[in-house]
Amino acid sequence: MPKHLQDTTTLYNGVKMPWMGLGVFKVEEGQELELAVKNAIKHGYRSIDTAAIYNNEEGVGRGIRAGLQEAGITREDLFVTSKVWNADLGYESTLQAYETSLKKLGLEYLDLYLIHWPVEGKFKEAWRALETLYKKGLVKAIGVSNFHVHHLEELLKDAEIKPMVNQVEFHPRLSQDELRAYCKEQGIQFEAWSPLMQGQLLDNPVLKGIAEKHGKSIAQVIIRWDLQNGVVTIPKSTKEHRIVENASVFDFELSKEDMEMIHSLNQNHRVGPDPDNFDF
Asked: Catalytic residues, which ones?
């Protein structure tokens, strides 16, 4: 159980990944983005998650450089993730997409590179490219995002290297029990995007009761629930006080009853597309 913001889980290849990071989905290029990344690093975050399709890798890179300088730490102290977009899935195109992301971020390597969506007929060639990047030591870990069990099973038929991470939509309304169990069995680290359901859970009465009992916010309770489930989580915020608040989850523990009450909220409800039925 993580006890500190900088605690890590060890991926099956030995790479250490922070349990918690900052997500920057839909945060546009500009000062707000750069400040969010810089402030997260200043306040102890050691993981930043972006993607090519977010169109903000350059700003993330500037925020990282400012954050490293202010915090007095080195690049090696950070865990940076990006993702290859659907239009670039293919062997050569994925290799090129990786180089483009590196250049925009101003980095020499990524800690984690993910296939963003399981586009049928394309993700296997993209995975072969990720394996090449990994074998060459150009990325520390490789993984996937939004993969169901059957996508993972299909990938593993031909893969030389098993994904180290599967980043998917996960929150109390979408507990993904079957997928989590499969990933655990395979040694694939489960990671949550949209852990706060894009704010839709922040007035839930069950969560409100648990939060009041612990003297915490609903967001803090949800993030704590992620961590106690062994799920890496990357809540998004651009406001400094929220960035700090989201990370203040290591001084309390949810009881077994709390955990079960939160789990009972599951409705298999998504705020994002279903990986079996997306069109972009």
From this structure: 54
